[in-house]
Amino acid sequence: MLNDVLHIRYSFAHGFPIPACSWTQTPTGKVRLTAKAIKNVDALLQYLVAVTAMKQNIQIIYGIVAPC
């Protein structure tokens, strides 16, 4: 799913259409991002930050106080 998220981010940043992923398609095949999908992505990213201690690494290495 992380790879899908990065492809979608790339598409947004460069003005391309949203890629078709299993979680970006409606049952009729229309590609869109729903509020539920965005919440799931947010949960995934928060989980990755927690398990990798990313917040602490940013604070230690860069001296930046990260929100959250």
Describe the overall structure.
The chain is mainly α and about 70 residues long. The chain has 3 helices and no strands. The chain is elongated.
Summarize the structure.
Helices cover 59% and strands 0% of the residues.
- The H-and-E topology, N to C, reads as HHH
Over the alpha carbons, how many angstroms does the gyration radius reach?
15 Å
Low-confidence runs: none
Count of the separate structural domains: 1
* Strand content bin: under 5%
Ends: how far apart?
Answer: 22 Å
Largest sheet: none
Q: Mean pLDDT, rounded to whole units?
A: 90
- Helix share of residues? 55-70%
Q: Which descriptor suits the 3D outline? A: elongated
Structural class category: mainly alpha
Helix count from the secondary structure assignment? 3
Strand element count: 0
Q: What descriptors fit this protein?
A:
single chain; 68 residues; mainly alpha; 59% helix; elongated
Give the SSE layout.
Layout: H1 2-14, H2 35-52, H3 54-62
